[in-house]
């Protein structure tokens, strides 16, 4: 049979907006209609994505996370949206999102219940896939709560992959498979990539620096097993978490990160070739957060067609040096300062080390992308560049 790897989708990491981290499971629309998970929220976000340049910057998916469903299936066994919060139904919402040149993502779970306790897809994989396809859904985030065993979990992820393919509709398949395996066994990423377009490895991203830092630490620690598998059609999600299921969430534009930490998240998600799913309120976003999230040069690195994931190449005291091979023999280079106290620190970048010595041989041009763009000019293989990096900040270069 055809595996999801052959579905021709997600040739670059998917980009979009998703409700989870910011709006969670807000289902009481009487108390706070502007924050509740309802069709109105998704219509307003779709409108904002077009009006404020998000779609044109590359953010194309509007994703519904957990808590969209009615508490029970209908008389034919089909999933149904909560009729109070989604009175027009998901098909109408998908039509609206498509009319804006955007795509719709939806959420379900491999087990018998979702993480928030709504009906799961266990024993209904084919029916649910057909339902989503008939609604015009373009992406499925498939969570891993409430599965009775790892065997059933793995079988469920495989079966939903095949069921989505059978519908004949192009649906990006986002899995939480390795995240639920990891505590017990080393995931087989070769197999997972055969079935999924991206997969989550680590805990939910929270709106905090400690969360971002722990994801970077985890990724560096496991890079030998995860970097090589990433590529067109299949991506490592630093986080796509469901009681916080975020797709590789960018928590920029919320409350918990300083400016330097937001720059670090954006730079490092680009280096890691991570799916870029924002979870924020696009109706209220500061101009500098918008500038960062829509930065064309950073997005171009994230979306580079070569599709190779970056990795850490050096650690020196509080500094980390990461690189990502790009198309056209270029490299993205990140200098991360993990010190959380004091002032800006200087780091001397020696070009001899980049790209196994190939990046600057015999010379290279260097452009800084973040925290602000500037041209550093041309350097030879044996020269070095001193950069100043704020605590918890990152300088992102293109070489």
From TrEMBL:
Q: What class of enzyme is it?
A: hydrolase
Q: What is its EC number?
A: 3.2.1.-
Database matches in Gene3D superfamilies: Aldolase class I (3.20.20.70), Golgi alpha-mannosidase II (2.60.40.1180)
**What keywords would UniProt list here?**
Disulfide bond, Glycoprotein, Glycosidase, Hydrolase, Lipid metabolism, Lysosome, Signal
Looking up PROSITE patterns in the UniProt record yields: ALPHA_GALACTOSIDASE (PS00512)
What's its catalytic activity? Answer: a globoside Gb3Cer (d18:1(4E)) + H2O = a beta-D-Gal-(1->4)-beta-D-Glc-(1<->1)-Cer(d18:1(4E)) + D-galactose; Hydrolysis of terminal, non-reducing alpha-D-galactose residues in alpha-D-galactosides, including galactose oligosaccharides, galactomannans and galactolipids; a globoside Gb3Cer + H2O = a beta-D-galactosyl-(1->4)-beta-D-glucosyl-(1<->1)-ceramide + D-galactose
Q: Where is the Alpha galactosidase A C-terminal domain?
A: 307-393
Q: Which GO terms describe its cellular component?
A: extracellular region; lysosome; membrane
A Pfam family of the record is Melibiase_2
Tell me the GO BP annotations in alphabetical order.
glycoside catabolic process; glycosphingolipid catabolic process; oligosaccharide metabolic process
UniProt subcellular location: Lysosome
Predominant cellular place of this UniProt entry's protein = other
InterPro entries in UniProt = Aldolase_TIM, GH, Glyco_hydro_27, Glyco_hydro_27/36_CS, Glyco_hydro_b, Melibiase/NAGA_C
Single GO molecular function: alpha-galactosidase activity
Instruction: Please give the function described in this protein's UniProt entry.
Output: Catalyzes the hydrolysis of glycosphingolipids and participates in their degradation in the lysosome.
Q: Which PANTHER family match?
A: ALPHA-GALACTOSIDASE A, ALPHA-GALACTOSIDASE/ALPHA-N-ACETYLGALACTOSAMINIDASE
Q: Which family does it belong to?
A: Belongs to the glycosyl hydrolase 27 family.
Quaternary structure, per UniProt, is: Homodimer.
According to UniProt, the name of this protein is Alpha-galactosidase
| The species this protein was found in | Piaya cayana (Common squirrel cuckoo)
Task: Show the taxonomic lineage.
Answer: Eukaryota, Metazoa, Chordata, Craniata, Vertebrata
Q: Which gene produces this protein?
A: Gla
